[in-house]
Amino acid sequence: MAEARYETRTRTIEETKVVLTLTEDEADHLRALITSNAPDELSSVLLALAEPDSAVQTNTVVHAGRAYDLATMYKDADGDVWKLRRHPDDSTIIQAQTVPVIADCWGAYTLSYIADRFGPLVRVIV
């Protein structure tokens, strides 16, 4: 008789994203180049050039060459978990707060502070 068993395991995955900033002309040239020589592996790049996802762009920030998704939590080298958000008065400042929240400390830490002192930060997969 057949038997099945379900198991659950938790995995932490470190993910690296590359953010490419192009002028409109550069994007047009790259789009034309990919369209004329596109292997299947580049179809997602072509799609991103054709229809940039503004939600992803506004929820992603780059610090020291690494992209951070503001909708995701990150674990530091000490095992502490952090969530990120834009400062309500200055969207160029990315604030960080520990999870679970012990006290409202949004103003105490920034992404650059925790990444530089407690990094590397690893994305938490929930």
Number of domains: 2
Beta-strand percent range: 15-25%
- Major pleated sheet: 5 strands, antiparallel
Number of strands: 7
H/I helix tally: 4
Low-confidence stretches: none
In which order are the strands of the major sheet placed?
6-5-4-3-7
> Radius of gyration from the CA trace?
19 Å
Average pLDDT level? 76
Explain briefly what this protein structure is.
The protein is α+β, with helices and mostly antiparallel strands. About 30% of the residues lie in helices and about 20% in strands. It has four helices and seven strands.
Please provide a written account of the structure.
By secondary structure, the protein is of the alpha+beta class. It has two domains: 18-52, no CATH class; 54-126. Helix content is 28%, strand content 21%. It is built from four helices and seven strands; from the N terminus they run αααββββββαβ. It has helices spanning 24-37, 43-50, 54-58, 111-118; strands at residues 60-63, 66-69, 73-75, 81-86, 94-99, 109-110, 122-123. The strands form two sheets. Strands 6-5-4-3-7 form a five-stranded antiparallel sheet. Strands 1-2 form a two-stranded antiparallel sheet. A hairpin with a 7-residue loop joins strand 4 and strand 5. The longest helix is centred in the first third of the chain and has 14 residues, at 24-37. The protein is flat and about 50 Å long. The protein starts with 23 loop residues before the first helix and ends with a strand. The model has no long low-confidence stretch (mean pLDDT 76).
